[in-house]
Amino acid sequence: MNGRAITSDLLLGMIPIVLLVALWQALVSFGYAPVTLLPPPGQVFSRMAQQLLSTTFQQEIAATLFRLFAGFSIATVLGVTIGLAAAVNPAVNAVVRPIVRVLAPLPKVALYPALLLLVGFGHQSKILLVTFDALFPILLATYYGASTVEQKLIWSAMAAGTPPREILFKVVLPAAAPSILTGCRIGLVISCIVVFLAEMITSTDGLGHALVTAARTFQAVDMFVPLITISLVGLILNGLLELVRSYLLRGFPEA
Amino acid sequence: MIEINQVSQVFQTSARQDHLALSDISLTIQDGAFVSILGPSGCGKSTLLYIVGGFVRPTRGAAKMKGRAITGPGPDRGPVFQEFALFPWKSVLGNVMYGPRQQGIKHAEAEAQSRALIEMVGLKGFEDFYPKELSGGMKQRVALARTLAYHPEVLLMDEPFGALDAHTRTRLQNDLLNIWERDRKTVLFVTHSVEEAVFLSDKVVMMTRSPGRIREIIEIDLPRPRRRTELLLDPRYQKYIVEIERMFDDSGEGE
């Protein structure tokens, strides 16, 4: 895509966001919602600019980011490893398939109370929850990608002298990269949601906690700041992942 | 020398019925011969090639290369597939270098050899392109170079020009013959085009429709190097074509 096309796409993409903010402003301006409960966007954004400079708020962001990264990274490593193993080894697949079928549809947030009791209120419970939730989309995407690798790619590599045990890393993994990265993208979005959710339920810090605390004390402006912050965090992380993706998949037709 | 002794291949269909794809095939291919396997679609001609490649184990019978039973793929037999099967994550140079690197050749030397091969197949200047950026004919040139790069004694070509337009196909046939004239590797070439088989081969193995059996082996006694424009006017060439097309019509009834 050329520069002009990217710019025009970006401008088009801004339209719904601008409309949303306009709607928000309209709700406040025309008195559909009391200003104390729904503050105008301008007020929220200026408060946010102020908060982003404060150390306390930065620490909340750091706590959330750390949990998000830790959980997402563990989920990626586990998901890719298990997905690949299941795709190439029928015995592993026989073990993994039933457990994935049972656990994948389970609302992982239901495990959170148990996690809190088991590992406490600190980072671990949030990281584990993020891991559980992000794991399945990555695992399933990896499994799907690795089990649909074109047979003739594998044959070509074997004929060139690649021993069977190296086929996994030299052919299957790179060939499955588009699927794996799609799984990671979904996993990342889920991670953003889940880390925030976990912090809202029970936490002593983090963006989710900041939101709940503000809501409980009717500080409407402070309630909206973490909300917008987490969506910006999501936007930035997704953008970074997209950069990694387009670099890694530069040879693939669909990327 | 390649010996195929009483090879039969049975596949299980999705309805769990046995389907006899190849029935009792015996064939000997001399070193340096260009042999085409010609038959209607579904006659198992590709399967026969895969058995020689070691990609598929025959249900009955055995294939031997230089007196040794074929038990798996090896760099002495290089495949070229209709689908190209290039590694999408590697550049043209990366694809061609894959084989030599797998053979333990040092990077610099592998690169030099590969660059020479890329030039030989007429793609100088495209070394850093990715397969997705190339036309079908160019992709197949890369695939041929990738296979030639690890110096197989036998080329196994599975309808390599089947996905190309008529003009590109003709050019690639000429280029393949030119390359073949230099070192006269053994070539096993699967095709459903009578003209292609006669133009290229020393020997054409005609197969019957399912189950695939050898119907006739026709020696093509035409002078080499072959020039397409000369051959088209040659009554002997025309006679081969007509003769084989007639057989083809008999065996391909209903197609």
Automatic annotation (TrEMBL), chain A:
Regions that span the bilayer: 12-33, 65-87, 99-121, 127-146, 167-198, 218-241
Q: Where is the ABC transmembrane type-1 domain?
A: 61-245
Q: How does it sit in the membrane?
A: Multi-pass membrane protein
Q: Where in the cell is it found?
A: Cell membrane
The protein's matches in Pfam families, at most eight in alphabetical order, are given as: BPD_transp_1
Instruction: Quote the InterPro entries the UniProt record gives.
Output: MetI-like, MetI-like_sf
What are the record keywords, sorted? Cell membrane, Membrane, Transmembrane, Transmembrane helix, Transport
Q: Which domain of life is it from?
A: Bacteria
**GO biological process annotations for this chain's record?**
transmembrane transport
GO CC list: plasma membrane
Q: Which family does the UniProt entry place this protein in?
A: Belongs to the binding-protein-dependent transport system permease family.
Protein name per UniProt: ABC transporter permease
Organism source for this protein? Bradyrhizobium archetypum
Automatic annotation (TrEMBL), chain B:
* Top-rank taxon, per record: Bacteria
Q: Where is the ABC transporter domain?
A: 2-234
GO MF entries: ATP binding; ATP hydrolysis activity
Q: Which SUPFAM superfamilies match?
A: P-loop containing nucleoside triphosphate hydrolases
The question of whether Transport is a record keyword is answered with: yes
Say if the entry is tagged with keyword Glycosyltransferase: no
Q: What InterPro entries does the database record attribute to this sequence?
A: AAA+_ATPase, ABC_transporter-like_ATP-bd, ABC_transporter-like_CS, ABC_transporter_ATP-bind, P-loop_NTPase
Keyword line? ATP-binding, Nucleotide-binding, Transport
- What's this protein's family per the entry? Belongs to the ABC transporter superfamily.
User: What is the documented function of this protein?
Assistant: Involved in beta-(1-->2)glucan export. Transmembrane domains (TMD) form a pore in the inner membrane and the ATP-binding domain (NBD) is responsible for energy generation.
- UniProt-recorded name of the protein: ABC transporter ATP-binding protein
Q: Which organism is it from?
A: Bradyrhizobium archetypum
